[in-house]
Write a structure and sequence with these properties.
Residues 1-23 are annotated as: Disordered. Residues 22-85, 117-277 form the DUF3097 domain. This is DUF3097 family protein. It comes from Streptomyces mimosae. By secondary structure, this protein is α/β, with parallel strands linked by helices. The protein folds into 2 domains: 22-83, SH3 type barrels (Roll); 117-278, no CATH class. The chain is 27% helix and 20% strand. The chain has a 7-stranded mixed sheet, with no helix packed on it. Strands 9-8-10-11 form a 4-stranded parallel sheet, with helices on both faces. Strand 4 (51-57) and strand 5 form a beta hairpin. The longest helix is centred in the middle third of the chain and has 18 residues, at 123-140. The N and C termini lie far apart (76 Å). The model is unreliable at 1-6 and 280-290 (pLDDT under 50).
Length: 290
Amino acid sequence: MRARSYDPDLTPPWKRPRAAPEVPADPGLVVEEVTTGFCGAVIRWEKTAEGPTVTLEDRFGAHRVFPMVARGFLLEGREVTLVRPKPAGAGKRAPARTASGSVAAPRARARVARAGRIFVEGRHDAELVERVWGDDLRVEGVVVEFLAGVDDLPSVVEEFGPTPDARLGVLVDHLVPGSKEWRIAEAVRAAHGEEVVLVVGHPFVDIWAAVKPAAVGIPAWPEVPRGQDWKTGVCRALGWPENTGAAWQRVLRSVRDYRDLDPGLLGPVEHLIDHVTVGSPAGPVGELAP
């Protein structure tokens, strides 16, 4: 026969004392120590070599330190076991953020595209905007389209036909006052009005330079002599292969979120998103247009 094991405690289960509930020793909790009857509010919890202790302060301002033993305190007349307090902010998860720093919206199907659009000059520029602002744009129902060159801007805007309900935003590469690009942008603004067409630029000679050097792992973007292709010059100066497409992917992968970008790009892109979304109706929830 197999021996049967017995509980050495012969006290009937219904007569055994119930385990005291554990209560975090959060500051301000008022308890009474069972052996001394000292009653006070918790003001401090400490971890010592002998074990955790709690300091209570009574209504006269007197302090007493007690070991945090099992069933050592009374809370509203019931025996409790004080345990380590919860860290500040425990149980409160910080809101999820998109790469642009915006509070992430709850998961939902993308919206049907708005009538408004954002055009971005330069393929690399458009890829960088997608990497950082893509989640925000899908939630807002804003489509970003690639603009091959600013010379095409007047005909692109004319074909789009912007209205107050279908606003157009344009990000131009290296928009410098007095340049040919500046004159084209000014002509578009004059023809259609800034309330429906907003043309902004960033100050960088190339969008690569909008990425902070530290994010890429370099001390600074190299100075490239005038007349030399900037991307090629950068690759030569940094000792990278002169395959600028591969080099751009290296730069793009280094961008985790908006903190890896220079404010000179952040401001213009946020301005464009605000322009297109304010007063521009979005369609019902559905599939986002490509």
